[in-house]
Specification:
The protein has 17 helices and 5 strands. It is mainly alpha-helical. The protein has 2 domains: 190 residues, no CATH class; 168 residues, Methane Monooxygenase Hydroxylase, Chain G, domain 1 (Up-down Bundle). It has a 3-stranded mixed sheet. A two-stranded antiparallel ribbon has the order 2-3. It binds protoporphyrin IX containing FE. GO terms for molecular function: heme binding; indoleamine 2,3-dioxygenase activity; metal ion binding.
């Protein structure tokens, strides 16, 4: 049995980096304090940071590199957006002591050197009780910009969603075998698990409102997830004079929904498809690879049609189970639009036209719903 996905797409980074990184760790420990008073204290601390070497001997395991990516991303994002207004970054260059390790760590992990979902959600947690396994009640957020409960809750909801996806990921993998063996009962079981999984993800998402205030999200948190449209120079790296532009972090960089789209044979089109495909580079390498593998598996029939859809068409007893899955995905996307309306459109009085990922909000999010619905058999 493949145990790779027991935690879904979450991965447990080390809790603290080795002592040579103490200066970084002490900055992220104190971020909420350092960011007060327009962040002058943070700027002073960063300005006198030495250039710390990152290599296989200072970061011996993948879990160290993951923690290093979270830490350097939090410091860089905080630094870039000190006194930032709206989406406008105050600084136009990232200093050498941040830019050089950010590029090296990202490249080691196969990520682009920009703020990605992995830094805020997938690797940004610790076990509350290290003697107990991971469960929805046994993890806490590792890094925070503001120290506010709203920020923790925002990450926790995403983390709980990622964890709740674990059985669905396994069912997607198991279903390939079931189709190959022509085991209709097993196919039905897998479809049911995926439906339940998508429904519970949607239910968890609705809990966002409980402790994350839309106005706090929009006015205080969102800026820290932003990318750079104007461009920022990465001092000390290759092409230091180039203004690098990149999108910010967004749930669009989670692999869950793309996986369920692949499983159900749902193909989005045009600008939406190319935007989503472009986001893959901002997912961890192994998740990208897994999505590619699954895409190849589920597309293996001779006409390059989705093998699940072809199978369901040949065995209509699975049709209701398949359609329930599609319905659950439509419901997820609808609920998600409500979040975007309440957390972005309303607090901005409808002036925000783009997500942190850089998409044209309304069109981008409405199209997938219409398209998904059409895939019912
Ligand atoms: C307050 C909470 C949330 C807000 C404000 C929000 C906002 C957005 C925005 C603006 C986009 C468009 C892409 C961009 O430019 O960033 C997007 C896309 C997306 N988000 Fe969220 N999001 C939230 C929570 C979530 C959660 C909890 C998930 C679950 C993993 C999620 C998954 C997605 C997915 C999969 C897309 C791609 C669109 C699709 O496939 O239908 N989002 N989100």
């Amino acid at each position: 049995m493949d145990s790779r996905w027991d935690l879904g797409f979450l991965s447990k980074a080390v809790e603290r980096l080795p002592s040579s990184f103490d200066r970084w760790e002490s900055i992220v420990d104190d971020l909420p304090i350092l960011l007060k008073d327009s962040g002058k204290q943070l700027r002073d601390k960063v300005d006198c940071l030495p250039l710390i070497t990152v290599d296989e001997s200072s970061l011996p395991t993948k879990q160290h590199w993951q923690r290093a990516y979270c830490v350097i991303t939090f410091i860089s994002q905080a630094y870039k957006f000190i006194e930032g207004q709206g989406d406008a970054a105050l600084c136009t260059s990232l200093p050498r002591q941040l830019a050089v390790p950010l590029v090296a760590i990202s490249s080691h992990l196969g990520l682009s050197p920009s703020p990605c979902y992995a830094a805020f959600v997938l690797w940004n947690w610790h076990l509350k009780n290290p003697n107990e396994p991971l469960s929805k009640d046994n993890f806490k957020v590792a890094l925070s910009f503001t120290g506010k409960e709203d920020e923790d809750w925002f990450y926790l909801i995403h983390m709980r969603i990622e964890l709740a996806a674990a059985p669905g990921i396994k069912a997607v993998v198991d279903c390939i075998e079931a189709i190959k063996k022509d085991d209709q009962q097993e196919v039905m079981r897998c479809l049911k698990i995926v439906t339940d999984c998508i429904s519970s993800i949607t239910d968890i998402m609705k809990e966002m409102y409980q402790e994350c205030n839309p106005s706090v999200f929009y006015n205080m948190l969102r800026v820290f997830f932003s990318g750079s449209k104007e461009g920022i120079q990465y001092v000390g790296t290759e092409d230091p004079d180039t203004l690098r532009t990149y999108p910010g972090a967004s749930g669009v960089q989670s692999s869950i929904i793309p996986l369920f789209d692949i499983f159900l044979g749902i193909e989005l089109e045009g600008g939406t498809k190319s935007f989503l495909d472009g986001m893959r580079i901002r997912m961890p390498l192994e998740h990208r690879q897994f999505l590619t593998d699954m895409k190849n598996e589920y597309k293996k029939d001779e006409f390059s049609h989705s093998i699940l859809r072809t199978y369901v068409q040949l065995h209509p007893c699975n049709k209701d189970a398949y359609n329930s899955c599609v319905t659950a995905l439509v419901a997820f996307r609808q609920e998600h639009i409500d979040l975007v309306t309440n957390y972005i459109s309303k607090p901005s009085n409808d002036t925000a036209t783009e997500g942190t990922g850089g998409s044209a909000l309304k069109i981008f999010l409405t199209k997938p719903i219409e398209k998904t619905e059409k895939f019912k058999l």
